[in-house]
């Protein structure tokens, strides 16, 4: 309880700008937790899933591939499922369907990450704004007293004003770190989905597409 009261004491000393900064920290923490849980559930053994799928395609069992995708739901499975039963259409149409399915998966990877970008950008700016407001108020007191103000009182006002800058940076720095972490995960997963999706198309191409239809 003492730590919590000290925290709210600092927020109160920093002025009204501290409250939106504190709100940004809560939102950023919620997004980080949500994304961490999402990626933990999302990341699967794609190699282990794809190999039996490709074997089934080589054997001509597209229906069993569908069962495999439904039994082991994962991002690659959902993309492959979008192309199953489409072996009678030209390859470019299959690629189009898989591209759309892949884009939906990438969109799910990007969910809420934009919020972290906004918080990482505005938190230090709000901190700077709070400091500027505090400094204006502090020097306004000097003007009111015609320079005959207690130096300790002026120093205390400046110290409180700088709290907002420290708070804004304290929110922005870990937010930027987590933003880059999630961006890197998103890029790796997007690359993997594209790579394995192309392997699926290649296997379907060999097994089901007459050469004469590939450019139809």
General description of the model:
This protein has helices at 2-14, 18-42, 46-58, 62-71, 75-83, 91-110, 113-144, 151-208. The chain is mostly helical and 216 residues long. It has one domain. Helix 5 (75-83) runs antiparallel to helix 6. The model is unreliable at 210-216 (pLDDT under 50).
Count of domain modules: 1
Computed CA radius of gyration, to the nearest angstrom: 28 Å
User: How much of the polypeptide forms β-strand, as a percent range?
Assistant: under 5%
Structural class by SSE content: mainly alpha
Distance between the termini: 71 Å
SSE ordering: HHHHHHHH
Q: Biggest sheet, open or closed, and with what strands and sense?
A: none
Q: Label the overall shape.
A: rod-shaped
What's the β-strand tally?
0
Number of helices: 8
What brief labels describe this structure?
mainly alpha, disordered C terminus, rod-shaped, 8 helices, 216 residues
Topology:
Layout: H1 2-14, H2 18-42, H3 46-58, H4 62-71, H5 75-83, H6 91-110, H7 113-144, H8 151-208
Q: What is the gist of this entry?
A:
The chain has 216 residues and is mainly alpha-helical.
């Amino acid at each position: 309880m003492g730590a919590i009261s000290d925290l709210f004491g600092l927020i109160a000393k920093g002025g009204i700008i501290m409250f939106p900064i504190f709100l940004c920290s809560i939102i950023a923490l919620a997004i980080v937790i949500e994304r961490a849980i999402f990626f933990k559930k999302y990341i699967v053994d794609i190699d282990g899933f794809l190999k039996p799928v490709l074997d089934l395609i080589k054997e001509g069992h597209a229906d069993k591939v569908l069962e495999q995708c439904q039994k082991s739901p994962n991002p690659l499975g959902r993309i492959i499922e979008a192309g199953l039963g489409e072996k009678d259409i030209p390859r470019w149409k299959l690629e189009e369907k898989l591209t759309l399915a892949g884009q939906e998966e990438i969109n799910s990877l990007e969910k809420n990450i934009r919020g972290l970008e906004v918080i990482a950008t505005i938190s230090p700016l709000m901190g700077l704004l709070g400091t500027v407001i505090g400094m204006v108020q502090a020097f306004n007191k000097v003007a009111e007293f015609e320079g005959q103000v207690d130096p300790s009182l002026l120093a205390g006002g400046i110290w409180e004003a700088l709290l907002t800058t420290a708070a804004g940076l304290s929110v922005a720095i870990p937010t930027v770190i987590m933003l880059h972490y999630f961006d890197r995960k998103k890029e790796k997963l997007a690359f993997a989905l594209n790579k394995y999706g192309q392997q699926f198309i290649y296997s379907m191409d060999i097994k089901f597409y007459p050469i004469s239809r590939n450019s139809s």
